[in-house]
Structure formats: C-alpha cells, structure tokens
Amino acid sequence: MSPQPPELDRRHFLAAGLPLVGGVLLADDDPLADPESPPAGRTRTLRIAHFCDVHLQPEKQAVGGLSAALRHAQEHFSPDLVLNGGDQVMDVMSADRSRSTRLFELWRSVMKDECSLPMLNVIGNHDVYGWNSAKHGVTPSDQGYGKRWAMEVFDLASPYYVVDRGGWRIIVLDSTHPVEGGGGYTARLDQAQFEWLERTLASTPSDRPVLVASHIPILAACTFLDGDNEQSGDWRVPGAWMHIDARRIKDLFLRHPGVRLCVSGHVHLADVVQYLGVTYACNHAVCGAWWDGPRDEFPPAYAIIDLYSDGTFTNRIVDWGWRA
Ligand SMILES: [Zn+2]
Question: Which of 25, 128, 241, 324 has minimal Cβ neighbours within 10 Å of its Cβ?
Fold first, then answer.
C-alpha cells in the first residue's frame, strides 16, 4: 500500500515573506488568523510546540528570549506539549563541571517558571557533557558524563524512546555519537538504537501515524548552504550536520508507510524536504544565531506542529518577534 501523500503546510514556505501581527504569521487565506480552527474535514488530535536549539545561557538575552517564546506559544496556541528539540543549553560538551551545573540549573529554573505544559526532550550535541572537556579535567568516569546528566535533567530513562500521544506514535531519536577513533561527533544511530527503531516500527499498528524527532536532521537541504560547502568545487556536507546513516534510515522508513513526518533542528537554517512519502522538516532555531539575531535569512522562531486523526499534519514556523 502506498502512503497517503503527506500534507504540507504552504505557510511554512511563506513564513519569511509574511507580515507579522503580534508575532503570528498572517496571510489573507491563512487559518492562522484563527489558529483554533482546524481545516475542514479532519480532527486535530495533538498540538506540539517544537522548540529547537534554544542554546540557553546566562549571557546575551537568552533567558528573556526563551521566556518570551514560551509565553507566546502558550498564550497564542495552547499546545498540548512542548518538544524540546535538542541543544537546550549552550554548551556542556566543552564546558567544565561548574559551568555545566549553572547551565542545567538555569534550564530547570526557566522551564519551571515559564512552561506549564508536559515536555518531551531530545538530546542535542551541546547537551552532552564532557566529551570535549578533557582540558578541564573531565573524565568518562565523572558523574553525569556523556548523556547521563542531560537524561537526569530532562527526566529520560533512555536517550531515545517512544510515546503515543493523540493517536500518533512519537519516536525520539538520539543523533549524537562520538567519531570512532577521533574527537567530535557524528550524526547517526548506533547499532543498538537502529535495531530498537526497527523493532519499534515493526510493532507499530498500521493505522497509527508516526512522527520522528531527532536533533540533527536525517535528511535536509539547508545543510548544503550552511557555510561555503561548495568552495572546493564539490558539495561537502559533514556527517555532524546531517545523519550519515540517512540511507539506511530512509530504507527502513520505506518499509513503514506510517512514518509521515520527521522534525529536527541543529542547522539553525530551515527547510522542508519530501522524500519517498516522508516529510523532513528542519525547523528554525529558537536562538537564531546563538542569540545574536537571525542566522542568515532565518530569525529566531519556534514551530507549531498540528497532528490530525487522519495522519496529516501541519508544521508552521512562528516568529514571536524577538530581536537581538
Ligand atoms: Zn546541534
């Protein structure tokens, strides 16, 4: 059976050129003018506020910016939950323990004060403690090393997991893995996680649509324009920017037509790619260019993802009006 063509929200593409009214994108024919009215003939079963790449820090205006974005999302859209898409803090991968403690405590405190909604958390590369902190004396035996600290702060039993909400299955992946034999990280699923994903999809009822959330995009076009990637005369997209195992994940999704939408962040540029019946949305960074304004053409923004009972969805970008 071939999958239903995924429904794309054309507003996503129009976001950059639309007028802003109170931070909500509006156009003449845009139902966002009344965001509580779903398109005719289908029932919205879940509304998610997707907050990617917050990069929270005590510096700049990060605390005020995140607080304003959370208030804006809750006031204008009444989401059912917040999906924190990774890189919640800036940054514990290269920081010492004292700075990392400060960042995670800041995250806890802002979310406690400003977010009254249930949350799902994705672990981003900047949330992984200590991999580049040997210079600060951090070692793998230290408490919280790697993803353990983030799992504690984000209340996760595993760095990847599955939940069912609103008739959909939501699969949260862990993209960040160390480069074998070298420093840094590569975006991929290790073998255990890939086999878990295979089993999870195999056991998903055929009538249950699937949303996949990863921090680093599985497949994205914007990665090509992140820097001077064509300078050598060939396109070069590092494995730290887009899943290096995209091919085998694509092959797996092809066997499971229930997979409709994959959302990510990480690039701080945004796009929507449709490939073999799956829509891959790489959404804006809440911090834009690390709280210094827009990243290229992309201002700080979060996304509102509406999931419907018939397996369709919308993914719209919301610029809540924050400027550096
Ligand atoms: Zn990232």
Answer: 324
Token readout for 196 is 């878990």
Query: Are 48 and 166 contacting, i.e. CB atoms less than 8 angstroms apart?
Result: no
Using CB atoms within 10 Å of the CB of residue 218, give its burial: 0 to 12 exposed, 13 to 18 middle, 19+ buried.
buried
Ligand 1 centroid to Cα of residue 86, in Å, is 7
**Looking at the chain, how many residues does it have?**
324
* Ligand 1 centre distance from Cα of residue 55 (Å): 9
Q: Give the mean pLDDT of 168-177.
A: 98
**pLDDT computed for residue 91 by the predictor:** 95
pLDDT at 181: 76
pLDDT-based confidence at 7, cuts 50/70/90? very low
What is the 215 CA–ligand 1 centroid distance (Å)?
6
pLDDT at 36: 53
Output the CA 125–ligand 1 centroid distance in Å: 5
Hey, what long-range contacts does 34-39 have (CB within 8 A, 24 or more apart)?
35/76, 35/77, 35/304, 36/78, 38/306, 38/308
How far is residue 116's CA from residue 70's CA, in Å, rounded to a whole number?
Answer: 9
pLDDT at 297: 95
Residue 183: its pLDDT value, please?
77
* 108 vs 184, more confident: 108
Give the mean model confidence (pLDDT) for residues 190-212.
97
Name the CATH topology of 49-318. Answer: Purple Acid Phosphatase; chain A, domain 2 (3.60.21)
Instruction: Tell how far the Cα of 318 is from the centroid of ligand 1, in angstroms.
Output: 20
pTM reported for the whole predicted model: 0.89
CB count in 10 Å sphere of residue 206: 8
Q: What spacing in Å lies between the alpha carbon of 192 and ligand 1's midpoint?
A: 22
- Across 114-131, b (16+ Cβ under 10 Å) vs e yields bbeeeebbbbbbbbbbbb
**CA 101 to centroid of ligand 1, rounded, Å:** 19
Q: Average model confidence (pLDDT) for the chain?
A: 89
| Å from CA of 36 to ligand 1 middle | 32
Q: Helix 246-254 and helix 191-202: axis angle, to 10°?
A: 10
